[in-house]
Amino acid sequence: MPDSARLGHATPRPAGCPAIVAVMTTYLVTGATGNVGRNVVRQLLNIPGAQVRAVSRDPGRADLPGAQVVRADITDKADLEPVVDGIDAAFLIWPLHTGAALPGVLATLARHTRRVVLLGSGAVAELPMEQQRDLLAATIPEWTFIRPSTFAANALWWARQIRAGDTVGGAHGELAMAMLHEADIAAVAVRALTSGRHVGELALTGPAVLSQSEQVHVIGEALGRPLRWVELPRPAARRRLVADGVPESFADTLLDAYAAMAKQPRPPVTSTVEEVTGRPARTFAQWATDHAAAFAQAAPTSAATS
Hints:
The chain is α/β, with parallel strands linked by helices. Helices cover 39% and strands 18% of the residues. The protein has 13 helices and twelve strands.
C-alpha cells in the first residue's frame, strides 16, 4: 500500500453514495507564511488527496488558497493541541531563538502522528542542530531532520540597500556559503512527508559555494546593473543588519556565526536535493532571478501636469 494511503484517512461516505471513496491525507505545516513554509504548502496542494492545515499567527494575510489556515502559537500547548488533532504528518519550522519549548512541541506531535519533518535551525544558540536532531529522533518514530546550508533568502536582508543604491555593506564579504533555494528545501520536505522513505538526517546545500560579495554580484546580474560589496567593521555592520530588518536580539548571534564560519574550510556541496527530488538544486542565479522584484528600484514617477 502506498505510504500516502497508509497514513491517510478515507473521506466519510454520504448516504446513498458508492463505497468508492477518496483517500485524504492531512499535513500540518508550521511557519506557513514564511519563505520555506509557503513553498511546502503550495507543493503539497499539488498532490491529489492532500489536505493542508497551515499554521500562521496572522491568517488574514496568509494568501494560501486551498489550505486550511489556522491561527496558533505552536509553543502554547492550548493552541497546539486542537491544531494537530487529526493530522497524518507534520512539517515543523522552529520559529524562536530559544529551544526551551521544542521538547514539549515534539511530544505533542508524537501523540498525533508518527511522521514529522523538522527543518533544523542554526539560530537556536543553546540547542545546536545535533541536539535538535537527537530530540526529534528520540520522540518521533518516522522522523526526518533537514540540515540546511545557508538560506538563499537571507540575501533579502540586502533588499533595502540594493533598492537605494549600488552597494551592499556588511561584514565578512569573503565568507563562503552554499546558498540554498527555499523551493528546494520545500521539495525535499514534501518528499519526506509524503513518501516515508527518508527517515534520518538529510544535509541540503545549493549547487555551488559563493562568497557574500559574489552573491551581491549575481543579484546585480539578475537586475541588469552592477552591484558591489563594501566591507564594514563589526559595529557598523551590526547597525546595518538591524537597519535591514535583522532582529536586534539576533544581530550579534549572526555576526558571531559569520566570524566562526570564516575560520572554517569552505563548506561542502551535497547532491542530496537531486537524490531526493530527481532534479538538481537550483542555482543562486536562479534564486536571484526569481526574487528580482524584491530588489528592483521603483520607477521614477512623472511630475504632475496641470
